[in-house]
């Protein structure tokens, strides 16, 4: 079983600040996904990264896949209260299923 | 598109009772996954189907759990008999490739 470690586990910041959360593993992934989950709902897919070193941007969110495809980061610029939620990374090893990390709980205070 | 539909949204049952959770995936999604989420263990994959066929059920905790997918538009997860430690949020998710899943809103199960 591949273990995905996410850090930090909890993050509380003020509106307007920047932040980075991390997803690390000792395993190589063929693809990696980031999801955001709000209370009472299921995770919602934000992005999929496939190529080592790949960088994808989604408005104020920047996702990077490590060169070795073992780790990833999510950077949020000028965080807003609407960014509050649980951020989950999930890795796929070509086995047809994904392993999820335990997530980073982000709170952005107005 | 209504997305992945799960029912019920909430279920409270007594220990020992049978519980059946239901999922209607998005049309065209050929993979279907059942996950369980708890504070202690996070999101755990229970079982997944591809083209209605169970591919990997190694995450099913024990024989009390069973899942079926009789056709492409319906799946069930059954727990019999239920126990308090089964209390969790159960998610159904579907996808078509690259493991980019669409999740339902989940069923919050409480076994008392």
Structure, described:
The complex is a heterodimer of chains A (110) and B (112). By secondary structure, chain A is mainly β. Helix content of chain A is 0%, strand content 54%. Chain A has no helices and 11 strands. In chain A, the strands form 2 sheets. In chain A, strands 2, 4, 5, 9, 10 and 11 form a 6-stranded mixed beta sheet that branches. Chain A has a 5-stranded antiparallel beta sheet with strand order 1-3-8-7-6, with no helix packed on it. Chain A is globular. The mean pLDDT of chain A is 93. Chain B is mainly β and 112 residues long. Helices cover 0% and strands 55% of the residues of chain B. In chain B, strand 5 and strand 6 form a beta hairpin. The interface between A and B is medium-sized, with 23 and 22 residues.
What percent of the residues of chain A sit in helical stretches (DSSP H or I)?
under 10%
- Using the alpha-carbon principal axes, give the shape of chain B: globular
Helix/strand class of chain B:
mainly beta
Topology, number of strands of chain B = 11
Mean pLDDT across residues of chain B: 93
Beta fraction of chain A: over 45%
Q: What is the N-to-C order of secondary-structure elements of chain A (H for helix, E for strand)?
A: EEEEEEEEEEE
Q: In a few lines, what is going on in this structure?
A:
The complex is a heterodimer of chains A (110) and B (112). In chain A, 0% of the residues lie in helices and 54% in strands.
Attribute tags:
heterodimer; A: 110 residues; mainly beta; six-stranded mixed β-sheet; five-stranded antiparallel β-sheet; 0% helix; 54% strand; B: 112 residues; seven-stranded mixed β-sheet; four-stranded antiparallel β-sheet; 55% strand
